[in-house]
Amino acid sequence: MTASPDSSPEAAPAGHQTFVAAMQTAQTWLAAWEAGELSDEVLADRVGELVAGLDGARGFFVVALTGEAPLLDRLPEPLLLELRRNGPLVVDLTARNLAMSTAMALQHGRSGDAEQQAASLRVQGRCRELLRQLEPGAVKARLEPLLAAAAGTAAADAPDGAFLERWGYDAEQRQAIAEAIEAVAEG
Prior knowledge:
71% helix; globular; 2 domains
């Protein structure tokens, strides 16, 4: 079944879609928004429903952060309000994407892949700017433990330490992550 801007690829409510279905839904909606077929307000309402669940939020952010659509480069006010309304989940995913894109930008630079490095830096910039616009208290509360983990000052069993370990980030990548986190506050 193909999805029109008025429907989603699955019958499930937007916030309860699978990760893949949420990516497809987000792509459809962003294309319709870019074509002027969806207003900022309608897109915001739909994205608000999508990011209410973990898989929906993950799917949306994969598309919005990595894609060519300029949505997060010129974030409409109604969408920002919806993202703020879904606070902790949106902040957490954006913080993790900031860390991952930062580490990957460094890795791509090491391997000489300028195109992928530029793509990772674009994601990093989008995450940084979005975090600056989300609820400051929630952002601070989320970034502090991630910064401690990246700087090596977190407890050994801290969730963010496990997150960085799981992805195998080395000392230079962790330093870059710490700098990217500090850059959020500097803006």
